[in-house]
Amino acid sequence: MGMPDQVAGGVFRVRLSIVNAYLVGPAGAADRGWVLVDAGLSISLGAIRAAAAAVYGPGSRPAAVVLTHGHFDHVGALKPLAEGWDAPVYAHRLELPYLTGRSDYPPPDPSVGGGLMALLSPLYSRRGIDLSGLARPLPEGGAVPAMPGWRSVHTPGHTPGHVSFFRDADRTLIAGDAFVTTRQESAVAAVFKPRVIHGPPAYFTTDWDEAERSVRRLAQLRPEVAATGHGVPVRGEEMRKELARLAADFRRAAVPSDGRYVRSPARADENGTFFVPPPAPAPLPTVLAGTGLAVAAGYWLGRPARG
Known about the structure:
Blueprint: E1 5-8, E2 11-16, E3 19-24, E4 35-37, H1 45-56, E5 64-66, H2 72-75, H3 78-85, E6 89-91, H4 116-120, E7 135-137, E8 150-154, E9 163-167, E10 172-176, H5 187-192, H6 208-220, E11 225-228, E12 234-235, H7 236-248, H8 250-253, H9 260-263, E13 267-269, E14 272-275, H10 284-289, H11 291-302
Parallel strand pairs: 4-5, 5-6, 6-7, 10-11
Antiparallel strand pairs: 1-2, 2-3, 3-4, 8-9, 9-10, 11-12, 13-14
Protein backbone atom coordinates (compact mmCIF):
# COMPACT_ATOMS: atom_id res chain seq x y z
CA MET A 1 0.00 0.00 0.00
CA GLY A 2 1.28 3.50 -0.86
CA MET A 3 1.23 6.62 1.22
CA PRO A 4 -2.31 7.61 2.26
CA ASP A 5 -3.76 10.78 0.73
CA GLN A 6 -3.09 13.97 2.69
CA VAL A 7 -6.36 15.91 2.69
CA ALA A 8 -5.25 18.73 5.02
CA GLY A 9 -2.27 19.50 7.23
CA GLY A 10 -1.64 16.40 9.30
CA VAL A 11 -4.82 14.65 8.10
CA PHE A 12 -4.43 11.51 5.99
CA ARG A 13 -7.23 9.52 4.37
CA VAL A 14 -7.01 5.73 4.48
CA ARG A 15 -9.15 4.39 1.61
CA LEU A 16 -10.84 1.15 2.67
CA SER A 17 -13.03 -0.09 -0.22
CA ILE A 18 -16.46 1.32 0.71
CA VAL A 19 -15.39 3.47 3.69
CA ASN A 20 -12.64 5.81 4.90
CA ALA A 21 -10.57 6.06 8.06
CA TYR A 22 -8.31 9.00 8.90
CA LEU A 23 -4.92 9.43 10.54
CA VAL A 24 -4.50 12.76 12.36
CA GLY A 25 -1.03 13.97 13.21
CA PRO A 26 1.96 15.27 11.21
CA ALA A 27 3.82 12.72 9.13
CA GLY A 28 6.67 11.21 11.09
CA ALA A 29 5.08 12.06 14.45
CA ALA A 30 6.55 10.25 17.42
CA ASP A 31 5.06 7.12 18.90
CA ARG A 32 1.74 8.12 20.57
CA GLY A 33 1.86 11.40 18.65
CA TRP A 34 -1.09 10.75 16.34
CA VAL A 35 -4.72 9.57 16.37
CA LEU A 36 -6.79 7.15 14.30
CA VAL A 37 -10.30 8.34 13.45
CA ASP A 38 -12.61 5.36 12.76
CA ALA A 39 -11.52 1.82 11.98
CA GLY A 40 -13.18 0.58 8.81
CA LEU A 41 -14.43 -2.92 8.12
CA SER A 42 -13.24 -6.13 9.70
CA ILE A 43 -11.16 -6.74 6.57
CA SER A 44 -9.45 -3.33 6.97
CA LEU A 45 -7.05 -4.38 9.73
CA GLY A 46 -3.97 -4.87 7.55
CA ALA A 47 -4.62 -1.76 5.45
CA ILE A 48 -4.91 0.49 8.52
CA ARG A 49 -1.75 -0.93 10.06
CA ALA A 50 0.12 -0.46 6.76
CA ALA A 51 -1.15 3.13 6.39
CA ALA A 52 -0.05 4.01 9.92
CA ALA A 53 3.39 2.50 9.29
CA ALA A 54 3.72 4.47 6.02
CA VAL A 55 2.93 7.80 7.69
CA TYR A 56 4.42 7.36 11.17
CA GLY A 57 6.89 4.53 10.85
CA PRO A 58 6.76 0.78 11.61
CA GLY A 59 5.56 -0.02 15.10
CA SER A 60 4.23 3.49 15.79
CA ARG A 61 1.13 3.53 17.98
CA PRO A 62 -1.59 6.16 18.26
CA ALA A 63 -2.33 8.12 21.40
CA ALA A 64 -5.99 7.18 20.93
CA VAL A 65 -8.63 5.96 18.53
CA VAL A 66 -11.47 8.47 18.14
CA LEU A 67 -14.81 7.46 16.62
CA THR A 68 -17.41 9.39 14.71
CA HIS A 69 -19.80 6.52 15.50
CA GLY A 70 -19.83 2.78 16.02
CA HIS A 71 -21.50 1.24 12.95
CA PHE A 72 -19.91 -1.97 11.69
CA ASP A 73 -18.08 -0.25 8.81
CA HIS A 74 -16.41 2.22 11.19
CA VAL A 75 -15.38 -0.20 13.96
CA GLY A 76 -14.73 -3.42 12.05
CA ALA A 77 -11.00 -3.54 12.83
CA LEU A 78 -11.26 -1.56 16.06
CA LYS A 79 -10.94 -4.28 18.68
CA PRO A 80 -7.69 -5.86 17.45
CA LEU A 81 -6.20 -2.45 16.69
CA ALA A 82 -7.06 -0.87 20.05
CA GLU A 83 -6.02 -3.93 22.02
CA GLY A 84 -2.81 -4.40 20.02
CA TRP A 85 -1.89 -0.75 20.39
CA ASP A 86 -3.17 -0.53 24.00
CA ALA A 87 -4.91 2.67 22.92
CA PRO A 88 -8.02 4.21 24.53
CA VAL A 89 -11.10 4.57 22.34
CA TYR A 90 -13.12 7.80 22.60
CA ALA A 91 -16.71 8.29 21.47
CA HIS A 92 -19.73 10.36 22.45
CA ARG A 93 -21.40 9.14 25.65
CA LEU A 94 -24.55 8.18 23.69
CA GLU A 95 -22.42 5.93 21.49
CA LEU A 96 -20.79 4.08 24.38
CA PRO A 97 -23.59 1.50 24.88
CA TYR A 98 -22.76 0.14 21.41
CA LEU A 99 -19.05 -0.04 22.27
CA THR A 100 -19.38 -1.71 25.67
CA GLY A 101 -21.71 -4.59 24.80
CA ARG A 102 -24.79 -3.04 26.43
CA SER A 103 -26.87 -2.45 23.30
CA ASP A 104 -27.22 -3.18 19.61
CA TYR A 105 -28.14 -0.61 16.99
CA PRO A 106 -31.68 -0.49 15.60
CA PRO A 107 -32.29 -2.63 12.51
CA PRO A 108 -31.44 -1.03 9.17
CA ASP A 109 -34.23 -0.09 6.78
CA PRO A 110 -33.77 -1.71 3.34
CA SER A 111 -36.85 0.05 1.99
CA VAL A 112 -35.13 3.45 1.73
CA GLY A 113 -32.55 4.90 -0.62
CA GLY A 114 -32.75 2.34 -3.41
CA GLY A 115 -29.66 0.55 -4.65
CA LEU A 116 -27.97 -2.69 -3.72
CA MET A 117 -26.24 -1.45 -0.57
CA ALA A 118 -29.62 -0.53 0.89
CA LEU A 119 -31.14 -3.81 -0.20
CA LEU A 120 -28.33 -5.77 1.46
CA SER A 121 -28.48 -3.79 4.70
CA PRO A 122 -30.39 -6.41 6.77
CA LEU A 123 -27.29 -8.59 6.43
CA TYR A 124 -24.90 -5.98 7.83
CA SER A 125 -23.97 -6.36 11.47
CA ARG A 126 -25.74 -4.02 13.88
CA ARG A 127 -24.41 -5.72 16.99
CA GLY A 128 -22.55 -3.70 19.56
CA ILE A 129 -18.97 -4.62 20.37
CA ASP A 130 -17.41 -4.89 23.81
CA LEU A 131 -14.49 -2.57 24.39
CA SER A 132 -15.51 -1.80 27.96
CA GLY A 133 -11.90 -1.81 29.13
CA LEU A 134 -10.82 0.77 26.55
CA ALA A 135 -13.92 2.80 25.60
CA ARG A 136 -14.22 6.26 27.15
CA PRO A 137 -16.55 9.24 26.66
CA LEU A 138 -15.39 12.28 24.77
CA PRO A 139 -15.17 15.36 27.02
CA GLU A 140 -18.46 17.24 27.25
CA GLY A 141 -16.91 20.60 26.40
CA GLY A 142 -15.88 19.55 22.89
CA ALA A 143 -12.14 19.02 23.39
CA VAL A 144 -10.79 15.94 21.62
CA PRO A 145 -8.14 13.93 23.51
CA ALA A 146 -4.75 13.88 21.75
CA MET A 147 -6.09 16.16 18.96
CA PRO A 148 -5.10 19.70 20.00
CA GLY A 149 -6.88 22.39 18.01
CA TRP A 150 -9.83 20.13 17.16
CA ARG A 151 -13.30 20.08 18.69
CA SER A 152 -16.08 17.53 18.55
CA VAL A 153 -19.48 18.56 17.22
CA HIS A 154 -22.43 16.38 18.21
CA THR A 155 -24.15 15.51 14.91
CA PRO A 156 -26.82 12.89 15.73
CA GLY A 157 -29.37 11.41 13.38
CA HIS A 158 -27.37 8.71 11.67
CA THR A 159 -26.72 7.39 15.19
CA PRO A 160 -27.57 8.95 18.57
CA GLY A 161 -23.97 9.68 19.48
CA HIS A 162 -22.57 10.52 16.06
CA VAL A 163 -19.95 13.27 16.19
CA SER A 164 -17.93 15.20 13.66
CA PHE A 165 -14.53 16.79 14.27
CA PHE A 166 -13.65 20.36 13.30
CA ARG A 167 -10.35 22.24 13.33
CA ASP A 168 -11.07 25.96 13.48
CA ALA A 169 -7.58 27.06 12.42
CA ASP A 170 -8.03 25.89 8.82
CA ARG A 171 -11.73 24.85 8.91
CA THR A 172 -11.00 21.18 8.29
CA LEU A 173 -14.01 18.94 8.95
CA ILE A 174 -14.04 15.18 9.51
CA ALA A 175 -17.76 14.60 9.08
CA GLY A 176 -18.15 10.84 9.49
CA ASP A 177 -21.55 9.90 8.05
CA ALA A 178 -23.42 13.09 9.03
CA PHE A 179 -23.22 13.70 5.30
CA VAL A 180 -21.20 11.85 2.68
CA THR A 181 -19.81 12.58 -0.76
CA THR A 182 -21.22 9.63 -2.65
CA ARG A 183 -24.58 7.90 -2.92
CA GLN A 184 -23.74 5.19 -0.42
CA GLU A 185 -27.01 3.30 -0.97
CA SER A 186 -25.72 2.29 -4.43
CA ALA A 187 -23.09 -0.47 -4.59
CA VAL A 188 -21.58 1.06 -7.74
CA ALA A 189 -21.32 4.50 -6.11
CA ALA A 190 -20.00 3.01 -2.86
CA VAL A 191 -17.10 1.39 -4.75
CA PHE A 192 -16.34 4.00 -7.44
CA LYS A 193 -17.32 7.07 -5.37
CA PRO A 194 -18.70 9.56 -7.91
CA ARG A 195 -18.59 12.93 -6.17
CA VAL A 196 -21.84 14.36 -4.83
CA ILE A 197 -22.76 16.03 -1.53
CA HIS A 198 -25.30 13.57 -0.16
CA GLY A 199 -27.23 13.02 3.06
CA PRO A 200 -26.23 10.27 5.50
CA PRO A 201 -26.54 6.65 4.33
CA ALA A 202 -30.31 6.25 4.45
CA TYR A 203 -30.61 2.59 5.45
CA PHE A 204 -28.85 3.14 8.80
CA THR A 205 -30.16 6.64 9.62
CA THR A 206 -32.66 6.33 12.46
CA ASP A 207 -33.70 9.95 13.19
CA TRP A 208 -34.20 12.17 10.15
CA ASP A 209 -35.11 15.32 12.07
CA GLU A 210 -31.84 15.13 13.99
CA ALA A 211 -29.95 14.32 10.79
CA GLU A 212 -31.30 17.51 9.20
CA ARG A 213 -30.29 19.62 12.18
CA SER A 214 -26.81 18.08 12.09
CA VAL A 215 -26.25 18.91 8.42
CA ARG A 216 -27.36 22.48 9.07
CA ARG A 217 -24.94 22.70 12.00
CA LEU A 218 -22.05 21.56 9.81
CA ALA A 219 -23.00 23.86 6.94
CA GLN A 220 -22.86 26.79 9.36
CA LEU A 221 -19.21 25.96 10.08
CA ARG A 222 -18.39 26.75 6.43
CA PRO A 223 -15.61 24.16 6.20
CA GLU A 224 -12.74 24.57 3.78
CA VAL A 225 -12.15 20.80 3.58
CA ALA A 226 -14.71 18.09 4.30
CA ALA A 227 -13.44 14.54 4.81
CA THR A 228 -16.35 12.11 5.07
CA GLY A 229 -16.83 8.50 6.03
CA HIS A 230 -17.83 7.54 2.49
CA GLY A 231 -16.70 9.14 -0.74
CA VAL A 232 -13.87 11.48 -1.59
CA PRO A 233 -12.72 14.55 0.38
CA VAL A 234 -14.12 17.82 -1.00
CA ARG A 235 -13.07 21.43 -0.55
CA GLY A 236 -13.58 25.05 -1.44
CA GLU A 237 -16.41 27.42 -2.19
CA GLU A 238 -18.32 25.09 -4.49
CA MET A 239 -18.40 22.44 -1.75
CA ARG A 240 -19.73 24.99 0.73
CA LYS A 241 -22.47 26.00 -1.69
CA GLU A 242 -23.48 22.37 -2.23
CA LEU A 243 -23.49 21.69 1.51
CA ALA A 244 -25.59 24.80 2.11
CA ARG A 245 -28.06 23.62 -0.56
CA LEU A 246 -28.28 20.21 1.08
CA ALA A 247 -28.95 21.84 4.45
CA ALA A 248 -31.60 24.16 3.03
CA ASP A 249 -33.37 21.47 1.00
CA PHE A 250 -32.69 18.46 3.23
CA ARG A 251 -36.29 17.22 3.39
CA ARG A 252 -36.52 16.90 -0.38
CA ALA A 253 -32.92 16.03 -1.20
CA ALA A 254 -32.07 13.54 1.56
CA VAL A 255 -35.13 12.26 3.45
CA PRO A 256 -36.85 9.25 1.84
CA SER A 257 -40.53 9.64 0.95
CA ASP A 258 -41.39 6.83 3.37
CA GLY A 259 -39.58 4.37 5.60
CA ARG A 260 -39.34 2.84 9.02
CA TYR A 261 -37.54 5.82 10.60
CA VAL A 262 -39.20 8.40 8.39
CA ARG A 263 -42.50 7.48 10.05
CA SER A 264 -41.02 7.53 13.54
CA PRO A 265 -37.41 7.81 14.82
CA ALA A 266 -35.73 5.21 16.97
CA ARG A 267 -35.02 6.33 20.52
CA ALA A 268 -31.90 5.85 22.62
CA ASP A 269 -30.33 7.05 25.84
CA GLU A 270 -27.13 6.37 27.76
CA ASN A 271 -28.14 2.70 28.08
CA GLY A 272 -28.65 2.28 24.34
CA THR A 273 -31.67 1.74 22.11
CA PHE A 274 -35.02 1.59 23.95
CA PHE A 275 -37.56 2.10 21.14
CA VAL A 276 -37.63 0.91 17.54
CA PRO A 277 -40.65 1.65 15.33
CA PRO A 278 -42.25 -1.15 13.28
CA PRO A 279 -40.76 -1.75 9.82
CA ALA A 280 -42.14 -0.17 6.70
CA PRO A 281 -43.16 -2.80 4.14
CA ALA A 282 -40.65 -3.32 1.33
CA PRO A 283 -41.97 -4.18 -2.16
CA LEU A 284 -41.80 -7.94 -2.73
CA PRO A 285 -39.89 -7.72 -6.04
CA THR A 286 -37.24 -5.61 -4.32
CA VAL A 287 -36.86 -8.14 -1.52
CA LEU A 288 -36.60 -11.10 -3.89
CA ALA A 289 -34.14 -9.38 -6.21
CA GLY A 290 -31.36 -9.16 -3.65
CA THR A 291 -31.65 -12.41 -1.74
CA GLY A 292 -28.71 -14.29 -3.29
CA LEU A 293 -26.38 -11.32 -3.35
CA ALA A 294 -27.36 -10.40 0.18
CA VAL A 295 -26.11 -13.69 1.58
CA ALA A 296 -22.70 -13.38 -0.08
CA ALA A 297 -22.19 -9.68 0.58
CA GLY A 298 -23.48 -9.82 4.14
CA TYR A 299 -20.97 -12.55 4.98
CA TRP A 300 -18.11 -10.62 3.37
CA LEU A 301 -18.89 -7.32 5.09
CA GLY A 302 -19.76 -8.71 8.49
CA ARG A 303 -17.27 -11.47 9.23
CA PRO A 304 -15.07 -10.85 12.28
CA ALA A 305 -11.59 -9.40 12.09
CA ARG A 306 -8.52 -11.48 12.71
CA GLY A 307 -5.69 -10.13 14.81
